[in-house]
Amino acid sequence: MSNKITMQQIADSVGVSKFVVSKTLSGKGGVSEATRERVIAAATQLGYFTQKHVYMNAAKPEPAAEGAKSRQSVLLLMPNIRFQTKESLYWGRVLDGVSARLEQEGCGMIIVSEQSIEHFVDILNPSGILGLIGVGEISTSLLLEVHRIGLPMVLVDHEDALIPTDTVFANNYESVYRLTKHLIGMGHRNMMFVGNVRYSRSFLDRFLGFRSALEERLPEARKLSKEEQLVPLDGADQSEHLESFKSWASERMERNALPTALVCANDRIAIGAVRALTELGLSVPEQISVTGFDNIEDAYRIDPPLTTAHVPKEALGKRAVERLLGRIASKNEPLEKILLTCDLLYRGTTCPVNEDGISERYGLPGRDSRPEHN
């Protein structure tokens, strides 16, 4: 009896027609998003995507002539064009790392910011592409199309539970765990995390690191719900986040219920929080400490400079290229999730507090910019 997983088996599992399954797995339209997700989930669970017959053969590197470099290219997919651009202080550095490493290998790079699955299919030409590196948030439908044709891919700062692939992340959980423990060591007992944990896997992992450190070191924190440890942010861009945060901070000030420290999901949010708190008449860090994550260039330009976790952004890009080349060479190896360690930079937006949560004010430990070493 054959162990081959068929479209009919998937259809029976989901309760839809084989035609619907075929349209979904071929990346075609006409299928609702909810049904598409159910079909992909069932196909993944049944092991359909691990069958070699499902995919076309991906391009293989052709040996270059002696003294010449290969002209094959890697596709770099950056679909979130509002926030993930070459000019970004974060994503631009990741892109630099990808570009530099590909140049060492004699490979070209094609940057695509397409979000439409139909247009993306038109762009995709496996015969001329070694593989794909996806940067940041990418829809399941786009990833499914890449996976369907068998093109090797590596995702940077993103993963999809339905699409098995290699991934490269900063060690978000461990970094915020250490940063939170540092704040606890400075006397902080009343802290909150600022950021939408549904925005990305990285934000969620950072919150989990924050919460784990609190619950490990502060027994009283174990009684708090997830919502009681989170500062909600509305909207998608920086200006909307700022207004949402100011509204929250104003309401807390009126109740005299501000925490002594805020652990922000990234530097952009932290910088906005510092500015909002300043506009509300609060002094950072004397009245409230703030930390960020990423160490973008603006993090050390603000006054005071931001305490943050330094993400090795170019290294993320380089490591993604290396993993892609490794995947091309050995397609049957187990998938890898690679985590790069971050350094913690203790700068001017944090300071110690006493047992009453009152700042010890100036000139105390924890105010310099030296990275933490384990």
Automatic annotation (TrEMBL):
PROSITE patterns: HTH_LACI_2. GO terms for molecular function: DNA-binding transcription factor activity; transcription cis-regulatory region binding. The keyword Transcription applies. The keyword Repressor applies. It comes from the Bacteria. SUPFAM superfamilies: lambda repressor-like DNA-binding domains, Periplasmic binding protein-like I. InterPro entries: HTH_LacI, LacI/GalR-like_sensor, Lambda_DNA-bd_dom_sf, Peripla_BP_I. It holds the Pfam family Peripla_BP_3. Keywords: DNA-binding, Repressor, Transcription, Transcription regulation. Residues 5-70 form the HTH lacI-type domain. PANTHER family: HTH-TYPE TRANSCRIPTIONAL REPRESSOR PURR-RELATED (PTHR30146:SF148), LACI-RELATED TRANSCRIPTIONAL REPRESSOR (PTHR30146). This is LacI family transcriptional regulator. It comes from Paenibacillus pinisoli.
